[in-house]
């Protein structure tokens, strides 16, 4: 069954969808090629909005209309998460290997905890750290786990640990 153009008295076959409302709803109408061209020339998503409303919409659109926070903010989720993760960290440098690494390169407690989170021994080569991080991102990414929030939280912790190691290796 073919659709007939929804424009005034047009009887042409309609093959093109045009939105009815600006709210990204699923509501649409069918238009023929001539009328979809006319519709597209006149379409203005921001019609009737003030400059301030347009600016606010575009700014919010940069973050997919979700609230954000400065990374420097003391109550930023990532800062709080990182501090909480590090507070419970135990000493993972056991045995002779740990003593050698500890004396060879001076890793901080944060660095040692980051190695533990990523699942590598302290002092592992940077290439190995990068490969491990890529594997963990694939493993814990929400898209690979049906959007499960527990995997999203684990991915955030792994990303913070990787960032910590990146900073640690940058100066060495």
The N- to C-terminal Cα distance equals: 69 Å
Q: What would the CATH topology of the largest domain be?
A: Helix Hairpins
| Oligomeric grouping of the chains | single chain
Sequence of secondary-structure elements: EEEEHHHHHHH
Instruction: Give me the side-by-side strand order of the main sheet.
Output: 1-2
How many domains, in number, for the residues?
2
Strand content: 5-15%
Low-confidence stretches: 89-103
Count of runs of 4 or more consecutive helical residues: 7
Which helices and strands appear, and what pairs or packs with what?
Elements: E1 3-4, E2 13-14, E3 16-19, E4 28-31, H1 33-42, H2 51-61, H3 77-87, H4 95-104, H5 109-118, H6 126-140, H7 149-170
Antiparallel strand pairs: 1-2, 3-4
In short:
The chain is mainly alpha-helical and 172 residues long. It has helices spanning 33-42, 51-61, 77-87, 95-104, 109-118, 126-140, 149-170, and strands at residues 3-4, 13-14, 16-19, 28-31.
């Amino acid at each position: 069954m073919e659709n007939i153009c929804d424009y005034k008295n047009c009887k042409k076959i309609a093959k093109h969808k045009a939105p009815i409302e600006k709210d990204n709803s699923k509501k649409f109408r069918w238009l023929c090629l001539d009328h979809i061209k006319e519709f597209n020339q006149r379409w203005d998503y921001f019609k009737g909005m003030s400059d301030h409303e347009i600016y606010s919409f575009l700014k919010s659109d940069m973050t997919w209309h979700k609230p954000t926070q400065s990374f420097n903010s003391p109550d930023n989720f990532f800062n709080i998460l990182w501090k909480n993760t590090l507070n419970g960290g135990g000493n993972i440098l056991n045995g002779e290997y740990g003593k050698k690494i500890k004396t060879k390169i001076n890793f901080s407690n944060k660095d040692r905890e980051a190695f533990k989170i990523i699942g590598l021994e302290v002092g592992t080569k940077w290439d190995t750290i990068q490969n491990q991080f890529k594997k963990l991102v694939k493993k814990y990414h929400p898209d690979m786990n049906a959007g499960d929030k527990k995997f999203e939280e684990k991915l955030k912790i792994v990303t913070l640990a990787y960032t910590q190691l990146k900073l640690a290796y940058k100066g060495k």
